[in-house]
Specification:
Length: about 180
């Protein structure tokens, strides 16, 4: 599983001083939480980068369609690029699972593990979006414009699905899911 590999990699790359401190009572739990947060951040950064790559493929298709004066899909394509941007920033700036000292809901290691697993599942959805974006760009570059509207629709549905899934993340952090 991606989340376990990422967490173990982050944990294995601790410096000697961090490993020594991790053995101190009280500090160990703190350090374990920090490692989980860092693993979560790495996974989300990867999801973000894949999303940006897919967006760039869609933008390249947009530019080619614009150059060829195929206007019937440009408005929908422009809206799609905006959805990509909004979701990418939502993922990029999502919380890392911190809770304030006086917050009613505390985020424990189990909660952080669920967040890491959840973010790793996002990678599966991202792969579908990435592949759809590549196929769309490839067809447009080969001047196969007849399915452009169909590709835009499919990508819009995939992005909206990913956003709905990602929005469930807050429920995990709050402990209601």
């Amino acid at each position: 599983m991606v989340e376990n590999k990422t967490y173990e990699k982050v944990k294995s790359e601790m410096r000697l001083s961090e490993r020594i401190l991790a053995e101190l009572p009280g500090f160990r739990g703190y350090k374990e939480k920090e490692l989980r947060r860092e693993a979560d951040k790495l996974i989300r950064n990867h999801v973000y980068n894949i999303l940006i790559e897919a967006k760039n493929n869609v933008k390249a298709a947009f530019q080619e369609l614009s150059k060829q004066r195929i206007y019937e899909v440009l408005d929908d394509l422009d809206k799609l690029v905006m959805k990509f941007d909004r979701l990418a920033e939502k993922i990029n700036h999502a919380t890392y699972g911190y809770a304030g000292f006086f917050d009613a809901v505390k985020i424990e290691e189990d909660d952080l593990d669920r967040i890491i697993s959840f973010d790793a599942r996002l990678l599966e959805e991202m792969q579908k979006i990435s592949e759809a974006g590549k196929i769309f760009k490839m067809e447009i570059v080969k001047q196969k414009y007849e399915r452009a509207k169909e590709h835009v629709q499919k990508l819009r549905e995939l992005i909206e699905g990913l956003e709905q899934t990602f929005d469930q993340r807050a429920e995990i952090i709050q402990g209601v899911r």
